[in-house]
Specification:
By secondary structure, the chain is an all-alpha fold. It is built from two helices and no strands. The radius of gyration is 23 Å and the shape is rod-shaped.
């Protein structure tokens, strides 16, 4: 039992780090998806403009 408590005590401080990494990962995914969306939006405008020329 004592070893289990020591192991849990060693893991507990990592919870804040894990939350921070989760937030960073979520922000990275939002940035990538936003960039892909705007890229598609801009390329769609270019293709329509080139098609009318």
């Amino acid at each position: 039992m004592r070893q289990a408590q020591a192991f849990l005590a060693a893991i507990e401080p990592d919870a804040g780090l894990m939350k921070m990494l989760a937030v960073i990962s979520l922000l990275a995914l939002l940035t990538i998806s936003g960039a892909a969306y705007t890229d598609q939006l801009f390329l769609g405008d270019q293709q329509m403009t080139q098609g009318t020329n």
